Structure formats: C-alpha cells, structure tokens
Amino acid sequence: MKVNEISCKSALSRSRLPGYYYALNPYRGCGHGCIYCYAPDVLRESRKWGSFVDVKRNLPTILSKEVKKKREGVVGIGTVTDAYQPKERKYKITRMSLEQLLKEDLPICIQTKSDLVLRDLDMIAKFSDAEVGFTTAFVSEETRKLFEPRAPPIENRLSALKTLHE
What we know:
The protein is an alpha/beta fold. It is built from 7 helices and 8 strands. The strands form 2 sheets. It has a 5-stranded mixed sheet. A 3-stranded mixed sheet has the order 1-5-4, with no helix packed on it.
C-alpha cells in the first residue's frame, strides 16, 4: 500500500448525493481494496484502486475555517472513500474532522465498512444530529473476502452497528 501525505485546498465540497449538502472525504484512495468500488470512476483515478491512499494531512485545519462560513446542511462523511479505512488508525484525520464539525454542530452522516467508527462514538454522541451507516454487501465471509479483501469482517460491522443502535 503506497501512502502519500498530501495537502488539500478545501475540505467540504458540495454534494450531489440525495440528503447530503456537503461531502467530506479525509482520504483519496482506499485500503479496503473492494473490487466493485465506484470511486475510481467518479474521481477519474488512473492509479490502481486499493493500492494507494492519499492522506489529506491539513484537512482538519482547512475544515476549521470552512465550518464557520458554511450554512447548515448534512455533511456526508466518507461519500467516496471510507473515512474509517485502515490508515485512519494512524492518521486520525476523520476524528480531528469530527472535532471541527462538532464546534458548529453540523448534522453528519457517516458511511463506512469499518468498526473503527466505534473509536469515535464518544464524539459522535455529542452531535445533535448524527447517523452512521454500514455497507454489508455479503452474508458469506468467504465471498466478502473475494470482493472486499481488506475490509473488516461482516461480523465486526454487525457488532458495531448493534453497539451504535444501543
């Protein structure tokens, strides 16, 4: 996995997805390596998807300035790449971004495949409007491994979903 630390010019972009006003993607590329991922086409990415992750190191700083100027609207977190992919354990860009979003209490909706989201449950619970959704495309762990080779096991996702529900 090739990791590149990059700088971004903006953190929040206008989303065209229904229900979201903004999109926040702390990473470009993804360590899950899902073979069915739509992101390479959306981003017009020529590098092999699943072989690299670009870490937007300055995103929380940029976000801290942007949230003060943005009008209210749901922020979709992880709309193109998983905000809780494996490199988040080290870099914590998503956690630092949540800290900035919480200052303005913007509504958030996180989409992930990772039970790592539970690490930030303390912060997510402080938002007045927060949702977390999990992608689980398969019931068989053997099939999951074929299509999502480095994504967390299905059982981890279901267990995390249960914890969030409680």
